[in-house]
Amino acid sequence: MLYDITRRVSPATAVWPGDTPYQAAPALQLAAGDNVNLLTLTLSPHTGTHADAYYHYTTDGAHPEAMPLAAYLGRARVVTVTKAAGPLLPADFAGVDLRGGERLLIHSPVSHLPDDRWPETFPYLSVALIEHLAALDYRLIGLDSPSVDAFHSQDLPCHHALRQHGLVNLECLCLHAVPDGDYELIALPLKLAAACGSPVRAVLRPLS
């Protein structure tokens, strides 16, 4: 059994305000007498469910081709939070045993929005939570929100804290159908050079 936790990418998929929407333009068409259908895709690397590359927010950061692949594959813990907006703090996970999780996937009310709906508000990470998870040897933090930082943030403290502690992140997950618990995560970024991020096909496989 697999849980597909990926947002569908279509021209209607909500993107960060001002970013490039997805387009699929035909270059060759069987209906026009060509021997194949061939499309030219136009999209932001941050369309739908995606992995940020460190280059997204640092000029000397790694592009997707050089991000640590092993971080996107392995044990992951899904945890539901009720907070619909604002920073997520260690206290928001009180009563949840996070030890041994390796990768934290945070299920918030954003997961229940349709793919074409931009969240007007959303929860995001805090440096305190990143430091807490880094101390527990976590390797990845995934959100259903479109950013690990606040929408209007200019200095992006959470993005930088992730890199400082050697963590990677996923954004725009869709966890509405996934019960809390432990899974195997598979969410590999593409081997893209000179890019700031990569779409992923994120799936969870129950460990049992």
Unreliable spans? none
Give me the oligomer status: single chain
Compute the average pLDDT: 97
CATH H-level superfamily title: Putative cyclase
Largest sheet: spatial strand order: 1-13-11-5-7-9-10-4-12
Beta-strand content: 25-35%
Span from first to last CA?
10 Å
Please report the number of helical segments. Answer: 2
Radius of gyration from the CA trace? 17 Å
CATH fold field value: Glucose Oxidase, domain 1
Find the structural class using helix and strand composition. mainly beta
CATH architecture: 3-Layer(bba) Sandwich
State the name of the first-level CATH class: Alpha Beta
Number of extended strands: 13
- The geometry reads as globular
Q: What about the largest sheet?
A: 9 strands, mixed
Helix fraction by DSSP (H/I, runs of at least 4): under 10%
| Count of spatially separate domains | 1
H-E string: EEEEEEEEHEHEEEE
